[in-house]
Design brief:
The chain is α/β, with parallel strands linked by helices. The chain contains nine helices and 18 strands. It has three domains: 4-211, Rossmann fold; 218-309, SH3 type barrels (Roll); 311-390, Beta Barrel (Elongation Factor Tu (Ef-tu), domain 3), CATH 2.40.30. Helix 1 links the parallel strand 1 and strand 2 (28-35).
């Protein structure tokens, strides 16, 4: 009897081809479309409307002659992803809702919903791969980068567990994006020419301040410009003799800089941001180098190479350390060299992980731009993603 697979059919080309490949491989395939968001507040028109996506998904299912169902997961999505996102921004942190969406919705709530169809597996159109090995009788799931370096989505899956991976298939991880579109065109799938979705997972491209103002009020505050010569800060304010100091953000106060403008809420900004400052008359563009939601201040610096944009390390507290490969979990006092990224599509960076009683510290060979609390740092051994954690500072 053929193995049964429930495919998260989103209406996009990637999940469409995933469903086609699985059917061609002999699986019994069922398409399941998720409705996760109804509110259009702050959403830029014509971007990711689910009512259009569901039509594409149903057309693909009809073409492939597979059953098609719809499930509304908007309540858990709001509770576990959007409410978390609002909470993080309110604290002055920069969350990654796409990582949370995968951990909490696509590979949790969706898995639960799929159980109604008694599947052996679920499948998605992510650009990543999975391999299985056996070590002394213990089965191990390996999460690997996709073969397309421009589309690899393993970072977005950095919070998945062995239990989630064991029942998941990634049918397109070995393909390049142009190859996926070619398969879709060859099979006459409606989604073949459909553009990729952008912005927040299941919400779409948003005007972030407008979207956040659903719950976070605007608060006028001050912008202070920090001079590029930070030698005084590195020598007087930071002690690089221990990991805590190396991984700490720059400790600015208003006396360090010059008042340069007003903003409408520090919680609407993140480190490395350029847009939305509305301050002109500078030799080089201004970038956010720090925010302080308690005092409602933003600190900025001129130019892409401003030293305040770069840091040597970061910290993850113990409760936020997650190992995809639990068999490789580091012990207190241990240090290891891995490749690390702190955002999607960032090239892998050389770093060293240090496990202490206080948490996990990551120090980099080269200073990293735009490290922000709330982001996810993920570490790799070659092409295999081993673990991740929420950046605490």
């Amino acid at each position: 009897m053929a193995k049964r697979v429930v495919v998260g059919l989103s209406g996009g080309v990637d999940s469409s081809v995933a469903a086609y490949l699985l059917k061609e491989a002999g699986y019994e395939v069922i398409g399941l479309f998720m409705i996760n968001w109804h509110d259009k507040t702050g959403v830029i028109d014509a971007d990711c409307p689910w009512d259009e996506d569901v039509v594409f998904a149903e057309l693909v299912a009809k073409k492939l002659e597979i059953p098609f169902h719809v499930v509304d997961l908007s309540e858990p999505y709001r509770e576990r992803v959007i409410d978390y996102m609002f909470s993080e921004y309110q604290k002055g942190r920069t969350p990654n809702p796409d990582v949370l969406c995968n951990r909490e919705i696509k590979f949790d709530a969706f898995l639960d919903a799929a159980e109604a169809y008694k599947p052996d597996y679920v499948a998605t159109g992510h650009y990543c791969k999975k391999q299985t090995s056996n070590n002394k009788g213990m089965e191990i799931q390996h999460l690997l980068a996709g073969d397309d370096p421009n589309k690899d989505q393993s970072y977005f899956l950095c919070q998945l567990s062995q239990e989630q991976l064991v029942r998941t298939l990634f049918p397109i991880g070995h393909l390049l994006k142009p190859e996926v579109r070619e398969v879709a065109r060859a099979q006459g799938l409606a989604s073949a020419g459909k553009k990729d979705s952008q912005g927040i997972c299941f919400v779409g491209k948003v005007h972030l301040p407008v979207f956040l103002q659903q719950k976070l009020k605007a608060r006028e505050g001050n912008i202070f410009e920090i001079p590029a010569d930070l030698s005084q800060y590195s020598s007087e304010k930071q002690d690089f003799s221990d990991l805590e100091a190396i991984c700490a953000p720059w400790p600015y106060v208003k006396e360090d800089g010059q008042w340069t403008g007003k903003h409408q809420g520090a919680h609407f900004f993140t480190v490395g941001q350029r847009k939305g400052l509305n301050v002109g008359g500078k030799t080089e563009p201004l970038f956010v180098i720090a925010t302080d939601v308690k005092t409602n201040r933003i600190y900025v610096g001129q130019g892409q190479k401003h030293p305040g944009l770069y840091r040597r390390g970061l910290k993850i507290i113990p409760s936020e350390i997650h190992w995809v490969r639990r068999d490789l979990e580091m012990q207190v006092g241990e240090s290891r060299f891995y490749l690390v990224r702190i955002r999607y599509r960032q090239a892998l960076q050389e770093g060293t992980l240090h496990r202490t009683d206080s948490g996990l510290y990551i120090t980099f060979k080269e200073p990293q731009r735009g490290v922000a609390a709330g982001q996810f740092a993920a570490w790799y051994d070659g092409e295999e993603l081993l673990g991740s954690g929420v950046i605490n500072q």
